[in-house]
Every structure is written in structure tokens, then in C-alpha cells.
Amino acid sequence: MKSSNNIENNKYSIAIACPGRRRTLQQASELYSKGWLTKWITSSYLFGKVLSRKSPLKGLDSGNIPSKYVRSIIFSELLFKSTSSFTFLKRFRADLWEYRNSIFAKKALSTLEKSGHCDLYYGYSSGCGETSRFLVEMKSSQKTMVAIEQASAPQYFEKMRLSQELQKWPHAGQVSALEMPKFLEIDEEIEHKNADAIIVACDFIRNILVNKGIDEQKIHILQKGIDTQFFTPDSLSEYTVNSPLNIIYAGNISLLKGVPYLLEAVKKIGSKYVHLNIVGKNQLSQKFIKQYEDVATFHGHVDKYRLRELYRANDIYIHPSLSESNAYVVSEAMACGLPAIATYESGSFVRNGVDGFEIPSANIEAIISAISFFIENPKKINDFGINAHSNAKSFDIRDYGKRYSSTIDQILSKNQFKRQLV
Length: 422
Known about the structure:
By secondary structure, the chain is α/β, with parallel strands linked by helices. The chain has helices spanning 24-33, 75-85, 93-115, 129-137, 139-142, 155-168, 182-194, 203-211, 259-269, 286-290, 304-313, 328-335, 364-376, 379-392, 400-413, and strands at residues 14-18, 37-42, 45-46, 49-50, 70-72, 120-124, 145-149, 197-200, 219-221, 245-250, 274-279, 296-300, 316-319, 340-343, 356-359.
């Protein structure tokens, strides 16, 4: 039974849908708590359990949403996931990916038709192209708005940026991102044209879409949250700077993350002054990585407890990404009391000269300059760290639901958008 003190029951009727492992659970839970949820359509729900990553919020599980509000489309998802487990299926991964999305879209549409009127359909980029197009075509009878969450940089942009980096770093050994299925890029174009609203996590993604010709009036910025009760400093008042300075990066070791620029910068500064700790899966060649082992330690993938321990053991966090949506790791490190050095493309909310520095991407000298500031001004690390911790607390995951529903309310209240068919 829905909360009896919910004064907003039935204000809106909203369906939220996305295949794969996305953070739709918290969104669906927020909509249900407000009485706005018509259907949560997911491929990560089975026998009352959510199969995605465990939420950092205690008590936030599928039990919050009665099964009648959930439509589980799981068979195609299990088939798609099997391509990661069986080597002989990997060559069919693109086809199965497209099949998964197509089956999900068709079954989602069937569910929406049976559910009756819906004010808003909320989906994710590269996951609901067929669904959003169909709903737009039905606007005369359904009058359903379509909102798309652009969870990362558009496919065309990432392919373009990666092609540029492959020319700069021909011996780094990464090509996988160029092999992303073409249909994802096509789906995104359909979704961007059909959507009444597009939700992004930062100005970087917003500006890419505007430059592509998307009406900026229908783009809304909504940053995701982090668990600031888990990611905390050991102590902000008893901080001692390491010698040499310890800096940390967490994320894939790849060209799009800008890691080669970071490694080169640290190499130029020298092991006498700085040591780099890298956490994450390596997507570059071992030969390329090996030449930096004197200035960097590669920890591989770690769980969140070990990651928090590593944050706390370092002095500075750095994120040199060339294409991102909203790098959670920057906010996590800041919540642990670390000043942050991050590119504009990281999608972070670093305040330049207050809790860190925003630097241009693909720029070795800019990285050197930012790191050198802290080497030369070690007392600033504690001051910046205190400010970083305070800033990160503004983006606690427990407040995300309210910010999400507020954005949805703004979209529906401002129903001024004109749909444009492909």
C-alpha cells in the first residue's frame, strides 16, 4: 500500500524503462513513493529480486515496489549476458545486443498499451529507440511525453574522440570502443529527435547535444549522487602529506579516460616527487603500461571497501578523462577529503582553486602544473580537502530521489515541447 501521507498521489502517471543494469531502481522507487509510477519496466528483476548491483542505500530493494507495478523482461537480457561468459558467442554480441534492445522495446510497448494512459515515458539512451518513436507517433491518442536520459557521451562523439587518440597513441593498443554496434548510434539519433526532454548529468554532455542541433530548452541537468555516509575521510584535522606526493586515479585504463596523458605527466615529474596509484581494468597493452611501472602502481579492479581505503591513503585525486558523463569517482574521492584535479569532460563539479582544479583535457603540461601546485604548496592539500568534502556532501545519493522527481515535475509542468518525427 502506498504511503497514506503522500499528498501527491496520482498527480502524474509515469512509466520508467531500461534494459540492462542501470540505476532505474532508485528512480522507480521515488516515483512509486510519490504515487506517480504506472510501470517499472526492467530486465533486472526476477522473483521479487533486483539482479543489478546492490544499492548503497540500506533497505532500498524491490520490496519497496509491489510486483503489480513491475514488468520484468529478463529472457533476452540473460541471453545477452551469456555472451560475456562463453567465448564462442562473443562474435554474435552486437547482434544479440540489438536483439535484446528490440525485444525489450516491443514488450515495453505492449505493457504500456495494456497499462492505459501514461503522462510520461522515461527511458535511457541507446535503450529505447523503438519505444520512444512509437509513443511519439501515438501522441494524438496517448498524449504521452518522452524523456530520455543520456547516460554517457553520444556514441558518435566517443568514436570520433577515440579515433583521434588512436592516432596520437598508436602503440597503446586499444581499439575495442570503435567496434561498438552501429545501431546504438542510430538509436540515439532517433531518441534525441523524438524526445520531449533529455536528461544529462553535466554541462559537457549538454553542450555536445546543443552543438549537434538539439534544442537546449529541452535539456535538463541532473547529477547523480554518491554515498557520502560510506565515502568519508579518516580525519580532516590530522592530515599529513605523503612524500613523495601520492595521487590516485580510479576508472578504466583507456584512451578515452586520458590515462596516457596522466602517465606521461607523472613520468616527467619523476618518482622523487610523486607516485601514482591506478585502480581499474586495463584496456591498453601491457607493453605500453610496463614503461610506467617506476612511477605508478596498478591495483586492478577492487571492491568499494578497498577503494575507500585507497582514497584515504592518497593525497590528491586526478581524473583526466576525455569523455565522461558524471564521474562518480571524483565525488567519492572528494567525499573522502581529497582535493581533485579533473577535466571539464569528467562532468565533475570541482570548484577551481577552492577544492581542486579543472584542467583542459589531453594536456600533459596542464596535469603537471596542477600536480606541481600541491607539491609546492603541501599545506593547501588539507584546506582544499576540507572544501572538497563539504562540496561532495551536496550530492548525497539520499537526496537524488528528490532532485529526480523535481526534474520530472519541471518537465511535465512545462509541457511546451513540440515533437519532431524522424
